[in-house]
Amino acid sequence: MSGGRATRLPERPTTGGEKVSESVQDRRAHPRIDTAVDLRIQPDEGGAVARVVTGNLSLGGLYCMSQVDIPEMTRLGVRLMLPGPGGDEAEEPVDLQAVVVRRRELPSHTSNGARYELALYFTSLDDMARTRLSRFLDAQR
Question: What is the pTM for the complete model shown?
Fold first, then answer.
């Protein structure tokens, strides 16, 4: 490694309001789609089910906000409630496994309690779930 100065990469905002460097955006294997999808998350070791809505979604993971504090590196069962084909049919749940890779407490301006930004990385997505999620994301583009 040379002794030269490090160059700071330009930043662009994410849906969550924080800045992510261009190199992080370039490293993402799957494009993120800004979309609101209901989901239910539950820690693998048990505990309450949290119902949240995605801010963005990809084949590799999702961003959401939660009123339930879930620590980083917590393994979760996730149920995405994707709309049926055509968008007007009953929701079709897609079950998968994920891990919390980023958690940030948001400032609370009300007495409703704390809110948390969560970034989840999908660790287990079977072929049927991958196909269903891929079709949904393609339709959102």
Answer: 0.75
